[in-house]
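Batch manifest line 257
LIGAND: NAP
JOB: complex structure
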Amino acid sequence: MAGRLEGKVAVITGSGSGIGQAIAERLAQEGADCVIDYIVEPEEAQGTVSKITAAGGKAVMVQADVTVMADCTKLIEAAWSQLGSCDILVNNAGIEKHADFVDVTEADYDAVMNVNLKGAFFLTQAFVRKLRDAKKPGRVINISSVHEDMVFPHFSTYCASKGAMRMLMRDLAVELGPMGITVNNIAPGAINTPINKNLLADKPKLDALLATIPLGRLGKPEEVAGVAAFLASEDGAYVTGSTYFLDGGLIRNYHEQ
Ligand code: NAP
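JOB STATUS: finished
ARTIFACT:
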């Protein structure tokens, strides 16, 4: 397909649903060949592949749990062996767990940190090692959250993981810049995806949230995908070390009483 990403190959984690699926579809529309990963059940990932191929794009599906180091390597290797390169990495896979801080279990802490931080860390390492060997530039795009910067009481593990992702992004932007690799975060506010299914089912809670968003609505996965496509393209070539907030103004909405 013709577009800003023609000839590029992108790996998008957690791309069977929500924001990851929208990003994969958008990068494919712009011409990138995409690797769609899934953990166990291939059905949702197959749905993303089918949408991309129906629109004339190219995508392959790879089983990879980002918390498993060998899977991280396998995912990047699959891009190179099946699609010939790996130019763009979107660290999108993420989970959240609700708990009062005093009740957080070690298992919950490990689950959230392993997906949101360790997964992104070592998948990026596998991505960069191949680029170093091939002497090629690349793009790393992390889907963090407004909670890389904004408090979210009762979600301390999520905030810790996304805050760490912010510093990881800044650090890698400086360390990897000389290799021609850009590293940026997209920090969504409330986006209409399965991760928010409990919120979407709770009208009073949803209305209270909407009242705090200056644009007065949830964001769409496609809107996150538009910023990812910009950062992946030549239009975003000089952007590195930045977080793009995509939150309808939520994070700036503080009023003196
Ligand atoms: P989602 O639909 O639940 O997407 C999360 C994806 O991550 C799912 O496809 C999930 O796969 C995958 N995943 C979970 N653990 C994984 C693992 N170990 N290895 C590989 N993939 C794994 O929710 P979403 O809203 O699109 O979330 C995408 C990202 O956006 C997350 O990082 C989230 O923190 C961030 N975000 C979302 C919002 C929002 O309001 N929606 C706001 C800020 C940030 P399964 O479905 O198979 O579990």
